[in-house]
């Protein structure tokens, strides 16, 4: 959907002309407040393909259970940016599940501000639990698998954006489990370590996969255990690592 049409849709949700307020604000809504934010969910639906969007109920339940949180960018009363995060236990890593900015406000460093807000909020939540996060991880599309030239350029721009923030692509195969209940999606993992922490080695990569697959996708999304276990084994086979049965 083109940017101008997105602006019309957001305006129909009660948002004035985007970017006209002098300052944007950030907040972390509760699971009770988020369902009524139509602009948040419209931006979520616009920003991610259906194969990569998890049900709203999963997002809201993670907020209620305290294993996840959301950050909104607000232009007045309108949500123009969002991030959805899951806090892994082992290893203690923030899993940035979704991050999106309204097209009209891109290239204004708002995505950078939102990313850093996610890190600050997540680090504080880990500290409240008596823990120290070792980094933040997220999924990105593989540019070479994009369906067209425009999508390839967009994927490469996203990777370049995160690289400027100090992240690296992890050198290992990865598949997003079937959040839509249909099929897994080949993707890449990017990681930014906490200050003083290293990029995961092969052993750390395997631990990260286990945390993402079992804590997030199995426990939170309720993807059947055999599905995530098969994906984990496939990754370990490709890495030539011994599989833990």
Describe what this molecule looks like in 3D:
The structure is a single chain. The chain is of the alpha+beta class and 245 residues long. The protein has a single domain (3-238), classed as Gcn5-related N-acetyltransferase (GNAT) (Aminopeptidase). It is built from seven helices and eight strands. Strands 1, 2, 3, 4, 5, 6, 7 and 8 form an eight-stranded mixed beta sheet that branches. Strand 3 and strand 4 form a beta hairpin. Helix 6 (202-220) runs antiparallel to helix 7 (225-238). It is globular, with a radius of gyration of 18 Å. The N and C termini lie far apart (45 Å).
Q: Give the uncertain stretches in residue-range form.
A: 1-10
Overall average pLDDT: 89
Helicity level, as a percent range?
40-55%
Strand content: 15-25%
Report how far the terminal alpha carbons are from each other: 45 Å
* Quaternary structure of the protein: single chain
Q: For this structure, what is the CATH class? A: Alpha Beta
CATH architecture: 3-Layer(aba) Sandwich
SSE order? HEHHEEEHEHEEEHH
Number of domains: 1
CATH topology: Aminopeptidase
**Which class of secondary structure composition applies to the elements?**
alpha+beta
CATH superfamily: Gcn5-related N-acetyltransferase (GNAT)
Radius of gyration: 18 Å
DSSP helix count? 7
Work out the number of β strands: 8
| Main pleated-sheet profile | 8 strands, mixed
């Amino acid at each position: 959907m083109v940017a101008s049409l997105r602006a019309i849709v957001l305006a129909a949700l009660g948002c004035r002309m985007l970017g006209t307020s002098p300052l944007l604000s950030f907040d972390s809504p509760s699971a009770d407040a988020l369902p009524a934010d139509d602009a948040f969910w419209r931006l979520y639906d616009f920003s991610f393909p259906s194969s990569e969007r998890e049900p709203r109920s999963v997002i809201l339940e993670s907020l209620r259970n305290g294993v996840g949180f959301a950050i909104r960018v607000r232009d007045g009363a309108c949500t123009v940016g969002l991030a959805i995060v899951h806090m892994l236990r082992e290893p203690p890593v923030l899993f940035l599940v979704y991050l999106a900015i309204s097209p009209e406000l891109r290239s204004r460093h708002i995505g950078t501000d939102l990313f850093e807000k996610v890190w600050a909020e997540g680090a504080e939540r880990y500290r409240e639990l008596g823990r120290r996060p070792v980094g933040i991880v997220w999924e990105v599309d593989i540019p070479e698998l994009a369906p067209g030239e425009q999508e390839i350029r967009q994927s490469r721009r996203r990777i370049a954006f995160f690289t400027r923030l100090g992240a690296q692509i992890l050198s290992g195969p990865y598949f997003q489990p079937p959040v839509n209940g249909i099929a897994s999606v080949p993707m890449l993992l990017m990681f930014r370590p906490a200050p003083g922490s290293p990029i995961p080695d092969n052993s750390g990569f395997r631990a990260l996969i286990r945390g993402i697959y079992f804590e997030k996708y199995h426990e939170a999304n309720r993807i059947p255990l055999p599905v995530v276990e098969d994906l984990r084994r496939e990754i370990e086979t490709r890495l030539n690592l011994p599989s833990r049965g």
